Sequence to fold (606 residues):
Amino acid sequence: MALDHIVAVLLAPLAFWVLLNGIDDLVIDIAALVAYCRQEWSRDPAERTPTETELDAVPMQRLAVFVAAWKEHRVIRRMLERNAANVNYPNFDFFVGTYPNDPPTLAAVRETAKLYSNIHHAVCPHDGPTSKADCLNWIYRRMLQFEEEHGVRFDMAIIHDAEDIIDPDALRWINYHGHSSDMVQIPVLALPTPLRELWHGIYCDDFAESQFKDMRARELLGGFLPSTGVGAGLSRAALEALAGGADGRIFEPAALTEDYEIGFRARALGLRQKYVPIHIRHGRPIATREYFPRPFWKAVRQRSRWVTGIALQSWEFHTVRETMQQLYWFWRDRKGLAGNLIAPFMNLLFLYGGLTWTIAEVIDQPWNLAREAPQGVALGLAGLALQALHTSIRTCCSARIYGWRFAAGTPVRVFVANWLNGVATVRAIGTYAAAKRAGQNPQWAKTDHRYPARATADIRPIDEILVTLGSLTAEELETAWATKPVEANIGDHLLASGLITEEALYGALARHYGVVFGKPATDAISTPITRLVPAEMSRRWRVLPFRIQGGELYLAATEIPSEEFVAQVRSFSSLDLRFQLVTQADFEDLAMTYLPAMPNMRLRSA
Fold:
Protein backbone atom coordinates (compact mmCIF):
# COMPACT_ATOMS: atom_id res chain seq x y z
CA MET A 1 0.00 0.00 0.00
CA ALA A 2 1.18 3.51 -0.80
CA LEU A 3 0.30 4.73 2.70
CA ASP A 4 2.33 1.91 4.26
CA HIS A 5 5.30 2.98 2.17
CA ILE A 6 5.01 6.62 3.27
CA VAL A 7 4.73 5.57 6.91
CA ALA A 8 7.73 3.24 6.51
CA VAL A 9 9.87 6.08 5.14
CA LEU A 10 8.92 8.39 8.03
CA LEU A 11 8.99 5.80 10.78
CA ALA A 12 12.73 5.11 11.12
CA PRO A 13 14.03 8.69 11.60
CA LEU A 14 11.10 9.69 13.81
CA ALA A 15 11.35 6.52 15.89
CA PHE A 16 15.08 7.11 16.30
CA TRP A 17 14.34 10.55 17.72
CA VAL A 18 11.80 9.09 20.16
CA LEU A 19 14.32 6.46 21.27
CA LEU A 20 17.09 9.05 21.71
CA ASN A 21 14.75 11.28 23.68
CA GLY A 22 13.71 8.31 25.82
CA ILE A 23 17.31 7.42 26.64
CA ASP A 24 17.97 11.05 27.54
CA ASP A 25 15.00 11.01 29.91
CA LEU A 26 16.19 7.70 31.37
CA VAL A 27 19.40 9.43 32.47
CA ILE A 28 17.28 11.96 34.36
CA ASP A 29 15.13 9.20 35.89
CA ILE A 30 18.20 7.42 37.27
CA ALA A 31 19.77 10.66 38.52
CA ALA A 32 16.55 11.61 40.32
CA LEU A 33 16.48 8.21 42.04
CA VAL A 34 20.09 8.65 43.16
CA ALA A 35 19.27 12.16 44.44
CA TYR A 36 16.34 10.78 46.42
CA CYS A 37 18.47 8.05 48.03
CA ARG A 38 21.23 10.54 48.74
CA GLN A 39 18.81 12.81 50.57
CA GLU A 40 17.34 9.95 52.62
CA TRP A 41 20.67 8.50 53.71
CA SER A 42 22.89 11.57 53.94
CA ARG A 43 24.07 12.90 57.28
CA ASP A 44 25.14 16.21 55.77
CA PRO A 45 22.80 18.97 57.08
CA ALA A 46 22.91 20.61 53.63
CA GLU A 47 21.62 17.41 52.01
CA ARG A 48 19.15 15.82 54.40
CA THR A 49 15.70 17.07 55.29
CA PRO A 50 15.77 19.53 58.22
CA THR A 51 13.55 19.03 61.23
CA GLU A 52 11.13 21.66 62.49
CA THR A 53 13.57 22.45 65.29
CA GLU A 54 16.40 22.95 62.82
CA LEU A 55 14.25 25.23 60.67
CA ASP A 56 13.58 27.44 63.67
CA ALA A 57 17.15 27.34 65.03
CA VAL A 58 18.84 29.28 62.21
CA PRO A 59 18.97 33.10 62.46
CA MET A 60 15.98 34.83 60.91
CA GLN A 61 16.95 36.89 57.88
CA ARG A 62 14.93 39.85 56.65
CA LEU A 63 13.19 38.85 53.41
CA ALA A 64 11.66 40.95 50.63
CA VAL A 65 8.95 39.40 48.44
CA PHE A 66 8.79 40.92 44.94
CA VAL A 67 5.46 40.80 43.06
CA ALA A 68 5.13 42.27 39.56
CA ALA A 69 1.54 43.21 38.66
CA TRP A 70 -0.06 44.35 35.42
CA LYS A 71 -3.89 44.31 35.28
CA GLU A 72 -4.01 42.10 38.37
CA HIS A 73 -6.69 44.01 40.29
CA ARG A 74 -8.92 40.92 40.38
CA VAL A 75 -6.37 38.84 42.27
CA ILE A 76 -3.63 41.01 43.81
CA ARG A 77 -5.53 42.16 46.89
CA ARG A 78 -6.63 38.64 47.73
CA MET A 79 -3.13 37.33 47.19
CA LEU A 80 -1.54 39.95 49.44
CA GLU A 81 -4.14 39.67 52.19
CA ARG A 82 -4.02 35.91 52.27
CA ASN A 83 -0.24 35.61 52.27
CA ALA A 84 0.49 38.57 54.54
CA ALA A 85 -1.75 37.09 57.19
CA ASN A 86 -0.82 33.43 56.93
CA VAL A 87 2.91 33.08 56.33
CA ASN A 88 4.74 31.54 59.32
CA TYR A 89 7.57 34.04 59.15
CA PRO A 90 7.35 37.44 60.84
CA ASN A 91 10.34 39.16 59.24
CA PHE A 92 9.32 39.81 55.64
CA ASP A 93 7.93 42.61 53.48
CA PHE A 94 6.05 42.69 50.18
CA PHE A 95 7.15 45.03 47.39
CA VAL A 96 4.49 45.16 44.69
CA GLY A 97 5.24 46.71 41.31
CA THR A 98 2.51 48.36 39.23
CA TYR A 99 2.23 50.76 36.28
CA PRO A 100 0.84 54.33 36.14
CA ASN A 101 -1.64 53.39 33.39
CA ASP A 102 -3.22 50.58 35.41
CA PRO A 103 -5.45 52.48 37.90
CA PRO A 104 -7.46 49.45 39.18
CA THR A 105 -4.32 47.56 40.19
CA LEU A 106 -2.77 50.73 41.63
CA ALA A 107 -5.85 51.26 43.79
CA ALA A 108 -5.99 47.63 44.92
CA VAL A 109 -2.37 47.67 46.07
CA ARG A 110 -2.70 51.03 47.80
CA GLU A 111 -5.82 49.93 49.66
CA THR A 112 -4.17 46.70 50.81
CA ALA A 113 -1.03 48.54 51.91
CA LYS A 114 -3.21 50.54 54.32
CA LEU A 115 -4.10 47.31 56.13
CA TYR A 116 -0.61 45.83 56.40
CA SER A 117 2.54 47.69 57.39
CA ASN A 118 4.77 45.20 55.54
CA ILE A 119 3.24 45.84 52.09
CA HIS A 120 4.99 48.51 50.02
CA HIS A 121 4.11 49.92 46.63
CA ALA A 122 6.57 50.30 43.74
CA VAL A 123 5.26 52.23 40.73
CA CYS A 124 7.22 51.92 37.50
CA PRO A 125 8.19 55.32 36.02
CA HIS A 126 6.65 54.46 32.63
CA ASP A 127 3.43 53.01 31.31
CA GLY A 128 2.97 49.27 30.90
CA PRO A 129 2.97 46.62 30.02
CA THR A 130 6.69 46.17 29.49
CA SER A 131 7.82 42.80 30.85
CA LYS A 132 7.84 41.07 34.19
CA ALA A 133 11.63 41.44 34.23
CA ASP A 134 11.45 45.20 33.76
CA CYS A 135 8.87 45.54 36.53
CA LEU A 136 11.00 43.42 38.88
CA ASN A 137 14.01 45.64 38.22
CA TRP A 138 12.02 48.69 39.33
CA ILE A 139 10.79 46.80 42.39
CA TYR A 140 14.44 46.13 43.30
CA ARG A 141 15.16 49.87 43.04
CA ARG A 142 12.16 50.56 45.29
CA MET A 143 13.56 48.13 47.86
CA LEU A 144 16.90 49.98 47.84
CA GLN A 145 15.06 53.27 48.35
CA PHE A 146 13.06 51.79 51.22
CA GLU A 147 16.28 50.59 52.88
CA GLU A 148 17.79 54.05 52.67
CA GLU A 149 14.65 55.70 54.02
CA HIS A 150 14.19 53.33 56.96
CA GLY A 151 17.75 52.32 57.78
CA VAL A 152 17.14 48.60 57.22
CA ARG A 153 18.72 45.97 55.01
CA PHE A 154 17.08 42.97 53.36
CA ASP A 155 19.07 39.74 53.25
CA MET A 156 17.12 37.98 50.48
CA ALA A 157 14.51 38.70 47.81
CA ILE A 158 11.88 36.12 46.83
CA ILE A 159 10.08 36.35 43.50
CA HIS A 160 6.34 35.66 43.34
CA ASP A 161 3.38 36.22 41.04
CA ALA A 162 0.04 37.83 41.74
CA GLU A 163 -1.79 34.48 41.71
CA ASP A 164 0.51 32.60 44.10
CA ILE A 165 -0.51 30.84 47.27
CA ILE A 166 2.68 30.95 49.32
CA ASP A 167 2.95 27.98 51.62
CA PRO A 168 2.82 29.10 55.27
CA ASP A 169 6.24 27.52 55.88
CA ALA A 170 7.93 28.38 52.57
CA LEU A 171 9.85 31.39 53.87
CA ARG A 172 11.17 29.35 56.79
CA TRP A 173 12.65 26.84 54.32
CA ILE A 174 14.09 29.58 52.13
CA ASN A 175 15.60 31.24 55.19
CA TYR A 176 17.12 27.93 56.32
CA HIS A 177 18.81 27.16 53.00
CA GLY A 178 19.53 30.83 52.32
CA HIS A 179 22.30 30.77 54.92
CA SER A 180 24.32 28.38 52.74
CA SER A 181 23.03 29.10 49.22
CA ASP A 182 22.68 32.19 47.03
CA MET A 183 19.62 31.00 45.11
CA VAL A 184 16.94 28.85 46.75
CA GLN A 185 14.04 27.45 44.74
CA ILE A 186 10.89 26.22 46.50
CA PRO A 187 8.79 23.70 44.50
CA VAL A 188 5.87 24.98 42.42
CA LEU A 189 2.73 22.86 41.97
CA ALA A 190 -0.58 23.44 40.24
CA LEU A 191 -3.67 23.49 42.40
CA PRO A 192 -5.92 20.44 41.92
CA THR A 193 -8.84 20.66 39.52
CA PRO A 194 -11.48 18.12 38.44
CA LEU A 195 -10.62 15.46 35.86
CA ARG A 196 -12.71 17.27 33.27
CA GLU A 197 -10.26 20.21 33.43
CA LEU A 198 -8.06 18.46 30.86
CA TRP A 199 -5.71 21.28 29.93
CA HIS A 200 -5.09 22.29 33.52
CA GLY A 201 -4.54 18.63 34.40
CA ILE A 202 -1.55 18.65 32.05
CA TYR A 203 0.01 21.41 34.18
CA CYS A 204 -0.62 19.29 37.29
CA ASP A 205 1.28 16.38 35.74
CA ASP A 206 4.02 18.59 34.28
CA PHE A 207 4.93 20.31 37.52
CA ALA A 208 4.56 17.21 39.68
CA GLU A 209 7.04 15.38 37.46
CA SER A 210 9.49 18.25 37.02
CA GLN A 211 9.55 19.15 40.72
CA PHE A 212 9.87 15.56 41.93
CA LYS A 213 12.31 14.44 39.25
CA ASP A 214 13.87 16.89 36.81
CA MET A 215 14.96 19.60 39.26
CA ARG A 216 16.57 17.09 41.61
CA ALA A 217 18.42 15.45 38.72
CA ARG A 218 19.73 18.80 37.49
CA GLU A 219 21.08 19.67 40.90
CA LEU A 220 22.77 16.27 41.32
CA LEU A 221 24.37 16.31 37.86
CA GLY A 222 25.68 19.87 38.15
CA GLY A 223 23.18 21.61 35.89
CA PHE A 224 22.06 25.17 36.43
CA LEU A 225 18.69 25.49 38.15
CA PRO A 226 16.21 27.47 36.06
CA SER A 227 14.00 29.43 38.40
CA THR A 228 10.34 28.58 37.97
CA GLY A 229 9.49 32.27 38.23
CA VAL A 230 7.93 32.01 41.68
CA GLY A 231 9.18 30.81 45.04
CA ALA A 232 12.74 31.70 44.03
CA GLY A 233 14.90 33.32 46.71
CA LEU A 234 18.03 35.32 45.86
CA SER A 235 20.56 36.23 48.55
CA ARG A 236 21.80 39.80 48.89
CA ALA A 237 25.15 38.69 47.49
CA ALA A 238 23.35 37.23 44.47
CA LEU A 239 21.30 40.38 43.92
CA GLU A 240 24.39 42.57 43.98
CA ALA A 241 26.41 40.21 41.77
CA LEU A 242 23.60 40.01 39.20
CA ALA A 243 23.07 43.79 39.25
CA GLY A 244 26.78 44.49 39.00
CA GLY A 245 27.18 42.36 35.91
CA ALA A 246 24.29 43.93 34.01
CA ASP A 247 24.41 47.70 34.61
CA GLY A 248 22.26 47.51 37.70
CA ARG A 249 19.61 45.27 36.13
CA ILE A 250 19.04 42.00 37.92
CA PHE A 251 16.64 40.70 35.28
CA GLU A 252 16.97 40.90 31.49
CA PRO A 253 14.09 43.23 30.44
CA ALA A 254 13.84 41.78 26.92
CA ALA A 255 13.53 38.18 28.13
CA LEU A 256 10.14 36.49 27.99
CA THR A 257 11.41 33.89 30.45
CA GLU A 258 13.43 35.99 32.88
CA ASP A 259 13.21 33.20 35.45
CA TYR A 260 15.11 30.82 33.18
CA GLU A 261 17.75 33.44 32.43
CA ILE A 262 18.29 34.33 36.08
CA GLY A 263 19.00 30.68 36.89
CA PHE A 264 21.69 30.44 34.21
CA ARG A 265 23.27 33.79 35.08
CA ALA A 266 23.41 32.90 38.78
CA ARG A 267 25.24 29.66 38.00
CA ALA A 268 27.59 31.40 35.53
CA LEU A 269 28.58 33.85 38.29
CA GLY A 270 29.53 30.95 40.53
CA LEU A 271 26.60 31.46 42.91
CA ARG A 272 25.48 28.39 44.81
CA GLN A 273 22.00 27.16 43.89
CA LYS A 274 19.73 24.97 45.99
CA TYR A 275 16.51 23.26 45.01
CA VAL A 276 14.32 22.32 47.97
CA PRO A 277 12.75 18.93 47.15
CA ILE A 278 9.04 18.42 47.75
CA HIS A 279 8.39 17.57 51.40
CA ILE A 280 4.99 16.60 52.73
CA ARG A 281 4.50 18.39 56.05
CA HIS A 282 1.28 18.92 57.98
CA GLY A 283 -0.61 16.97 55.31
CA ARG A 284 0.47 19.20 52.41
CA PRO A 285 3.48 19.59 50.13
CA ILE A 286 5.69 22.57 51.00
CA ALA A 287 5.30 24.35 47.66
CA THR A 288 3.97 27.45 45.97
CA ARG A 289 0.52 26.63 44.59
CA GLU A 290 -1.43 28.35 41.84
CA TYR A 291 -3.89 27.88 39.01
CA PHE A 292 -2.62 27.72 35.45
CA PRO A 293 -4.59 28.52 32.28
CA ARG A 294 -7.62 26.29 31.77
CA PRO A 295 -8.97 27.08 28.28
CA PHE A 296 -7.00 25.51 25.43
CA TRP A 297 -5.94 28.72 23.68
CA LYS A 298 -4.83 30.39 26.91
CA ALA A 299 -2.69 27.36 27.68
CA VAL A 300 -1.26 27.56 24.15
CA ARG A 301 -0.44 31.22 24.67
CA GLN A 302 1.43 30.63 27.90
CA ARG A 303 3.37 27.64 26.56
CA SER A 304 4.25 29.58 23.43
CA ARG A 305 5.91 32.17 25.66
CA TRP A 306 7.90 29.44 27.41
CA VAL A 307 9.04 27.93 24.10
CA THR A 308 9.91 31.35 22.69
CA GLY A 309 11.93 32.40 25.72
CA ILE A 310 13.74 29.12 26.43
CA ALA A 311 14.16 27.45 23.04
CA LEU A 312 14.42 30.50 20.76
CA GLN A 313 15.16 33.78 22.52
CA SER A 314 17.84 32.45 24.88
CA TRP A 315 20.16 31.98 21.89
CA GLU A 316 20.34 35.77 21.67
CA PHE A 317 21.56 36.28 25.25
CA HIS A 318 24.45 33.80 25.41
CA THR A 319 27.44 32.95 23.27
CA VAL A 320 28.50 29.38 22.55
CA ARG A 321 31.43 29.80 24.96
CA GLU A 322 29.08 30.87 27.76
CA THR A 323 26.83 27.86 27.31
CA MET A 324 29.53 25.25 26.69
CA GLN A 325 29.75 24.05 30.31
CA GLN A 326 25.97 23.70 30.43
CA LEU A 327 25.59 22.36 26.90
CA TYR A 328 23.73 19.21 27.91
CA TRP A 329 21.14 21.18 29.85
CA PHE A 330 20.61 23.63 27.02
CA TRP A 331 20.10 20.60 24.77
CA ARG A 332 17.45 19.24 27.13
CA ASP A 333 15.72 22.59 27.46
CA ARG A 334 15.75 23.31 23.73
CA LYS A 335 15.04 19.86 22.34
CA GLY A 336 11.32 20.51 22.79
CA LEU A 337 11.52 22.80 19.78
CA ALA A 338 11.85 19.67 17.62
CA GLY A 339 10.29 17.16 19.99
CA ASN A 340 7.05 19.09 20.37
CA LEU A 341 6.58 19.03 16.59
CA ILE A 342 7.55 15.37 16.20
CA ALA A 343 5.43 13.96 19.05
CA PRO A 344 1.99 14.50 17.43
CA PHE A 345 3.17 12.79 14.22
CA MET A 346 4.54 9.87 16.23
CA ASN A 347 1.19 9.54 17.96
CA LEU A 348 -0.45 9.18 14.56
CA LEU A 349 2.20 6.72 13.33
CA PHE A 350 1.85 4.54 16.41
CA LEU A 351 -1.93 4.56 16.07
CA TYR A 352 -1.65 3.65 12.41
CA GLY A 353 0.84 0.90 13.18
CA GLY A 354 -1.34 -0.56 15.90
CA LEU A 355 -4.42 -0.45 13.69
CA THR A 356 -2.74 -2.12 10.68
CA TRP A 357 -1.15 -4.78 12.89
CA THR A 358 -4.55 -5.59 14.42
CA ILE A 359 -6.14 -5.86 10.97
CA ALA A 360 -3.32 -8.09 9.75
CA GLU A 361 -3.79 -10.40 12.72
CA VAL A 362 -7.54 -10.58 12.23
CA ILE A 363 -7.32 -11.48 8.53
CA ASP A 364 -4.24 -13.67 9.11
CA GLN A 365 -2.00 -11.72 6.76
CA PRO A 366 1.61 -10.52 7.17
CA TRP A 367 1.99 -7.09 8.69
CA ASN A 368 3.09 -5.02 5.72
CA LEU A 369 4.69 -2.26 7.79
CA ALA A 370 7.09 -4.72 9.46
CA ARG A 371 8.15 -5.97 6.05
CA GLU A 372 8.72 -2.47 4.64
CA ALA A 373 10.45 -0.93 7.69
CA PRO A 374 11.76 -3.62 10.07
CA GLN A 375 14.34 -1.29 11.63
CA GLY A 376 11.81 1.48 12.06
CA VAL A 377 9.40 -0.90 13.81
CA ALA A 378 12.18 -2.15 16.12
CA LEU A 379 13.22 1.40 16.99
CA GLY A 380 9.58 2.38 17.48
CA LEU A 381 8.89 -0.49 19.88
CA ALA A 382 12.02 0.33 21.91
CA GLY A 383 11.00 3.98 22.08
CA LEU A 384 7.46 2.98 23.02
CA ALA A 385 8.77 0.84 25.89
CA LEU A 386 10.79 3.76 27.26
CA GLN A 387 7.80 6.05 26.84
CA ALA A 388 5.69 3.61 28.87
CA LEU A 389 8.31 3.70 31.64
CA HIS A 390 8.42 7.50 31.67
CA THR A 391 4.62 7.72 31.69
CA SER A 392 4.53 5.35 34.67
CA ILE A 393 6.99 7.57 36.55
CA ARG A 394 4.98 10.66 35.63
CA THR A 395 1.83 8.93 36.88
CA CYS A 396 3.49 8.10 40.22
CA CYS A 397 4.65 11.70 40.65
CA SER A 398 1.16 13.00 39.95
CA ALA A 399 -0.39 10.45 42.32
CA ARG A 400 1.92 11.57 45.13
CA ILE A 401 0.33 15.03 45.01
CA TYR A 402 -3.18 14.54 43.61
CA GLY A 403 -4.02 10.91 44.40
CA TRP A 404 -4.35 7.83 42.22
CA ARG A 405 -7.81 8.67 40.92
CA PHE A 406 -6.50 11.83 39.27
CA ALA A 407 -3.22 10.19 38.24
CA ALA A 408 -5.10 7.44 36.41
CA GLY A 409 -5.79 10.02 33.69
CA THR A 410 -2.10 10.80 33.19
CA PRO A 411 -1.60 8.51 30.12
CA VAL A 412 -4.51 10.23 28.36
CA ARG A 413 -3.16 13.66 29.30
CA VAL A 414 0.29 12.69 27.97
CA PHE A 415 -1.27 12.00 24.57
CA VAL A 416 -3.25 15.25 24.61
CA ALA A 417 -0.26 17.24 25.88
CA ASN A 418 1.68 16.30 22.76
CA TRP A 419 -0.87 18.15 20.65
CA LEU A 420 -1.05 21.12 23.03
CA ASN A 421 2.73 21.51 22.98
CA GLY A 422 2.83 21.03 19.22
CA VAL A 423 0.36 23.86 18.62
CA ALA A 424 2.19 26.08 21.13
CA THR A 425 5.52 25.47 19.39
CA VAL A 426 4.13 26.30 15.95
CA ARG A 427 2.71 29.53 17.40
CA ALA A 428 6.02 30.34 19.11
CA ILE A 429 8.01 29.91 15.92
CA GLY A 430 5.55 32.07 14.00
CA THR A 431 5.45 34.94 16.49
CA TYR A 432 9.22 34.88 17.01
CA ALA A 433 9.90 34.95 13.25
CA ALA A 434 7.42 37.80 12.78
CA ALA A 435 9.09 39.81 15.55
CA LYS A 436 12.55 39.30 14.07
CA ARG A 437 11.36 40.31 10.60
CA ALA A 438 9.97 43.50 12.09
CA GLY A 439 13.22 44.15 13.96
CA GLN A 440 11.51 43.93 17.35
CA ASN A 441 11.73 41.84 20.48
CA PRO A 442 8.95 39.28 20.95
CA GLN A 443 6.05 40.78 22.89
CA TRP A 444 5.36 39.71 26.45
CA ALA A 445 2.18 37.59 26.42
CA LYS A 446 0.81 38.06 29.94
CA THR A 447 -1.14 35.18 31.47
CA ASP A 448 -4.59 35.95 32.87
CA HIS A 449 -4.58 34.88 36.50
CA ARG A 450 -7.24 33.43 38.78
CA TYR A 451 -7.09 33.20 42.54
CA PRO A 452 -9.00 30.55 44.50
CA ALA A 453 -12.26 31.84 45.98
CA ARG A 454 -11.19 30.37 49.31
CA ALA A 455 -7.51 29.47 49.28
CA THR A 456 -7.22 27.35 52.42
CA ALA A 457 -4.20 28.63 54.24
CA ASP A 458 -3.67 25.83 56.71
CA ILE A 459 -5.48 22.49 56.74
CA ARG A 460 -4.28 21.63 60.24
CA PRO A 461 -6.73 21.59 63.18
CA ILE A 462 -7.37 24.93 64.83
CA ASP A 463 -5.62 23.90 68.06
CA GLU A 464 -2.40 23.07 66.20
CA ILE A 465 -2.51 26.43 64.45
CA LEU A 466 -2.90 28.16 67.81
CA VAL A 467 0.31 26.49 68.99
CA THR A 468 2.10 27.47 65.78
CA LEU A 469 1.04 31.09 66.25
CA GLY A 470 2.33 31.04 69.82
CA SER A 471 -1.11 31.65 71.32
CA LEU A 472 -0.55 28.73 73.73
CA THR A 473 2.07 26.08 74.38
CA ALA A 474 1.93 22.41 73.44
CA GLU A 475 1.79 21.54 77.15
CA GLU A 476 -1.19 23.86 77.71
CA LEU A 477 -2.95 22.29 74.73
CA GLU A 478 -2.33 18.79 76.08
CA THR A 479 -3.77 19.79 79.45
CA ALA A 480 -6.81 21.39 77.75
CA TRP A 481 -7.58 18.18 75.86
CA ALA A 482 -7.35 16.21 79.09
CA THR A 483 -9.79 18.52 80.91
CA LYS A 484 -12.17 19.23 78.02
CA PRO A 485 -15.76 18.00 78.50
CA VAL A 486 -16.70 15.39 75.88
CA GLU A 487 -19.39 17.53 74.30
CA ALA A 488 -17.32 20.75 74.24
CA ASN A 489 -15.46 22.19 71.27
CA ILE A 490 -11.71 22.52 71.91
CA GLY A 491 -11.70 26.15 70.74
CA ASP A 492 -14.56 27.09 73.05
CA HIS A 493 -12.92 25.18 75.91
CA LEU A 494 -9.60 27.00 75.44
CA LEU A 495 -11.46 30.30 75.38
CA ALA A 496 -13.51 29.48 78.48
CA SER A 497 -10.38 28.32 80.31
CA GLY A 498 -8.70 31.64 79.65
CA LEU A 499 -5.81 30.00 77.81
CA ILE A 500 -6.42 32.03 74.66
CA THR A 501 -8.14 35.28 73.78
CA GLU A 502 -11.06 35.68 71.42
CA GLU A 503 -8.75 37.45 68.99
CA ALA A 504 -6.32 34.51 69.01
CA LEU A 505 -9.12 32.03 68.30
CA TYR A 506 -10.52 34.06 65.43
CA GLY A 507 -7.02 34.65 64.06
CA ALA A 508 -6.48 30.88 63.93
CA LEU A 509 -9.88 30.37 62.29
CA ALA A 510 -9.05 32.98 59.66
CA ARG A 511 -5.74 31.26 58.98
CA HIS A 512 -7.48 27.90 58.64
CA TYR A 513 -10.01 29.23 56.13
CA GLY A 514 -7.61 31.50 54.29
CA VAL A 515 -9.50 34.72 54.92
CA VAL A 516 -8.65 38.10 56.45
CA PHE A 517 -9.23 38.64 60.17
CA GLY A 518 -9.99 41.97 61.82
CA LYS A 519 -12.64 44.63 62.09
CA PRO A 520 -12.80 46.76 58.91
CA ALA A 521 -11.53 50.31 59.31
CA THR A 522 -14.21 52.99 59.37
CA ASP A 523 -13.01 54.57 56.13
CA ALA A 524 -13.27 51.16 54.43
CA ILE A 525 -16.99 50.82 55.24
CA SER A 526 -19.65 52.21 52.91
CA THR A 527 -22.95 52.81 54.69
CA PRO A 528 -25.08 52.23 51.55
CA ILE A 529 -23.33 48.90 51.00
CA THR A 530 -24.13 47.77 54.57
CA ARG A 531 -27.80 47.89 53.57
CA LEU A 532 -27.31 45.65 50.53
CA VAL A 533 -28.21 42.60 52.61
CA PRO A 534 -31.52 42.88 54.53
CA ALA A 535 -30.94 43.76 58.19
CA GLU A 536 -32.83 40.70 59.44
CA MET A 537 -30.64 38.47 57.29
CA SER A 538 -27.49 40.19 58.54
CA ARG A 539 -28.48 39.60 62.15
CA ARG A 540 -29.46 35.99 61.56
CA TRP A 541 -26.18 35.07 59.90
CA ARG A 542 -23.98 37.61 61.75
CA VAL A 543 -22.80 38.96 58.41
CA LEU A 544 -22.47 42.60 57.35
CA PRO A 545 -21.53 43.74 53.84
CA PHE A 546 -19.28 46.77 53.98
CA ARG A 547 -17.68 47.48 50.58
CA ILE A 548 -17.57 46.60 46.89
CA GLN A 549 -14.25 46.56 45.07
CA GLY A 550 -13.00 44.81 41.95
CA GLY A 551 -16.35 43.14 41.32
CA GLU A 552 -16.39 41.60 44.82
CA LEU A 553 -18.71 42.14 47.76
CA TYR A 554 -16.80 42.25 51.06
CA LEU A 555 -18.64 40.93 54.13
CA ALA A 556 -17.62 40.96 57.80
CA ALA A 557 -18.70 37.74 59.52
CA THR A 558 -18.18 35.91 62.81
CA GLU A 559 -17.88 32.61 60.94
CA ILE A 560 -17.76 31.43 57.33
CA PRO A 561 -21.46 31.37 56.35
CA SER A 562 -23.09 28.26 54.95
CA GLU A 563 -24.06 27.60 51.35
CA GLU A 564 -27.63 28.49 52.32
CA PHE A 565 -26.55 32.07 53.09
CA VAL A 566 -24.53 32.30 49.89
CA ALA A 567 -27.53 31.08 47.88
CA GLN A 568 -29.74 33.76 49.47
CA VAL A 569 -27.22 36.49 48.63
CA ARG A 570 -27.02 35.20 45.06
CA SER A 571 -30.75 35.86 44.71
CA PHE A 572 -30.16 39.63 44.71
CA SER A 573 -26.44 40.03 43.89
CA SER A 574 -24.16 38.46 41.27
CA LEU A 575 -20.96 39.81 42.86
CA ASP A 576 -18.24 37.45 44.08
CA LEU A 577 -18.25 37.22 47.87
CA ARG A 578 -15.22 37.95 50.11
CA PHE A 579 -15.51 37.18 53.80
CA GLN A 580 -13.54 38.84 56.58
CA LEU A 581 -13.69 37.29 60.05
CA VAL A 582 -14.48 39.52 63.02
CA THR A 583 -15.00 38.71 66.68
CA GLN A 584 -18.43 38.66 68.27
CA ALA A 585 -17.64 41.91 70.07
CA ASP A 586 -16.57 43.62 66.85
CA PHE A 587 -19.66 42.42 65.04
CA GLU A 588 -21.86 43.80 67.79
CA ASP A 589 -20.16 47.18 67.38
CA LEU A 590 -20.70 47.06 63.62
CA ALA A 591 -24.34 46.03 64.03
CA MET A 592 -25.03 48.83 66.50
CA THR A 593 -23.52 51.38 64.10
CA TYR A 594 -24.84 50.22 60.74
CA LEU A 595 -27.96 48.11 61.37
CA PRO A 596 -31.32 49.46 62.58
CA ALA A 597 -31.54 49.17 66.35
CA MET A 598 -33.57 46.25 67.67
CA PRO A 599 -34.34 45.94 71.38
CA ASN A 600 -33.17 42.71 73.00
CA MET A 601 -31.37 41.65 69.81
CA ARG A 602 -29.44 38.53 70.67
CA LEU A 603 -26.55 37.29 68.60
CA ARG A 604 -25.64 33.64 68.43
CA SER A 605 -22.48 32.65 70.25
CA ALA A 606 -19.48 31.54 68.27
Observations:
- DSSP finds 25 helices and 15 strands in the chain.
- Confidence is low (pLDDT under 50) at residues 599-606.
